[in-house]
Amino acid sequence: MSTLTLTIARLGAQGDGIAETEAGPVYAPFTLPGESAALAVNKSQGTLISLREASPDRVEPHCRHFGPDGQNGTCGGCTLQHAADGLYQTFKRDLVINALKSKGLKPDVAPLITAQPGERRRAVFTARKTEKDLLLGFNQAESHHIVAISECPVTSPGIVSRLATIGKIGAAMAVNAEPFRITVLETLSGLDLSVDGIKGFGDRERRRTVETVLGERGIARVSLNGEIIVEPTKPVIEFGGVSVSPPPGGFTQATLAAEEAMAALVLDHIGKAKRVADLFAGSGTFALRIARKARVHAVEGEDKALKALDFSARNTQGLKPVTIEKRDLFRRPLMAQELKVYDAIVFDPPRAGADVQCQEIARSGVKKIVAVSCNPTTLARDLAILVAAGYRITSVTPIDQFLWSAHVEAVATLEK
């Protein structure tokens, strides 16, 4: 390891500052372009020792747990709290632009739809039982060290204000000192806690968990590895005014604001389409909204999510017909011939994208397509498949819902 004073040239895809040296790039977290920084360098990794010259785009972090000197260690939840809004928003938009360029795509990319503090309704905490208490927080970047948090400007006040309660429930569930995860979703009827990573959970821990939850207010459900342990009330969220009870640990968009922005783009593009296929439909984020104006065929590989969607569709008045199909679209995509009957297709796959499904969409000739993505790299690959088949990208909109991180969502619309 050596100590070097280097100038930061740019931000990397993960939000680290990058300095160029004769030996290759050095990646330095918590630095910004234009800064001169003293770094402890080990191969390609640089640890910030001090700033010799700070960027005018550097701002005070919003949280005491952020940065190299964060309280209890550096929380790994955020990477860019030290960047001014303009630099940060340009960085996120450029992630999408550069991914598209890498596939030869140069559509206009709209300004970033921004996220605000306190919007995150879903957070994944790491927990570990100690001799005295429960350690609850986020892992330090690239480490198993848990940074116990007392605040989080990203997460909703409804979750942050209940950290003590979440910790109490986690302590009741813990079997040993092995770390485990608690995913917390803020719903309209209370917090939904989905726990995984605990082994050897027995009757004693179950009774203790039930007693603890029933002694607290505002907890809708607690589950372990997908099994409901106690459910004082059904957790409820709404997709465009349609009430849904998602399955334990089921996917939901991290912020309501981002979800509504995505949905508005989807609905605007499909326009007056009468029959729509919603692929990777989850619990109905888009399908149930679309059903207010068009017939929807919702396809999803996860059985519990699909059942939640179906139940809500059947029990909500005023919706157009919604049909469902359980299908692994990675192994068995909807074929071009099956897709031809639709006026529009919406797809929102996991990070791996939907290349196999896109090849069938490309052959289908369906006029309008909306691609929703949490990974610019796989989005660019999927869009390139469609463009090669004669589709035209009409809009690309980056959307931020993981504030001060290097993650960005995007919605792309296409026409044949």
From TrEMBL:
The active site is at C374. Pfam families: tRNA_U5-meth_tr. S-adenosyl-L-methionine binds at Q253, F280, E300, D348. SUPFAM superfamilies: Nucleic acid-binding proteins, S-adenosyl-L-methionine-dependent methyltransferases. GO terms for molecular function: 4 iron, 4 sulfur cluster binding; rRNA (uridine-C5-)-methyltransferase activity. One of its GO terms (biological process) is rRNA base methylation. Keywords: 4Fe-4S, Iron, Iron-sulfur, Metal-binding, Methyltransferase, S-adenosyl-L-methionine, Transferase. Belongs to the class I-like SAM-binding methyltransferase superfamily. RNA M5U methyltransferase family. This is Methyltransferase. It comes from Ensifer canadensis.
